[in-house]
Design brief:
It is a single chain. The protein has two helices and six strands; from the N terminus they run ααββββββ. Helices cover about 20% and strands about 25% of the residues. With about 120 residues, it is of the alpha+beta class. The protein has a domain at about 40-110. It starts with a helix and ends in a 12-residue tail after the last strand.
Length: about 120
């Protein structure tokens, strides 16, 4: 009888663990839970022109894909991407170029050696 109790106890522990894992649902979580889809339209996309390079040389739209990301040599502190709407503060993200390197705000290094090159930025 004792052996059966241990078996039942082991089975119960296994069932509880499986149930707990299903409740946590580690593998099936949707990575966009909590986000709201906002389409990129002309009304929420603003191109600023602080450079003496014409806009058509540094920006284009091909088949609905916005292509931009050219940073001329000597640029310092240029913002290449800015996303507003943070829970704390004004912005969620700012990517800037300092001495040819892209940084998250002015701190964390994101990419290097970007002067006079086109680069792809997914946002």
């Amino acid at each position: 009888m004792r052996k059966m109790n241990n078996s039942c106890r082991s089975l119960l522990v296994i069932l509880v663990m499986v149930g707990a894992l299903e409740m946590l649902n580690f593998c099936g979580a949707d990575p966009i839970d909590g986000f709201t889809l906002v389409p990129l339209t002309e009304s929420n996309f603003e191109l600023q022109k602080p450079y003496d390079i014409p806009l058509d040389h540094r920006y284009s739209i091909v088949n609905g894909v916005h292509r931009y990301g050219f940073v001329p040599n000597g640029t310092f502190g240029a913002t290449v991407e800015q996303i507003h709407g943070a829970a704390h503060g004004a912005t969620t993200l700012i990517l800037r170029i300092y001495d040819k390197d892209m940084r998250y705000y002015s701190r964390d290094l994101v990419a290097t050696d970007l002067y006079d090159k086109w680069f792809r930025l997914n946002s």
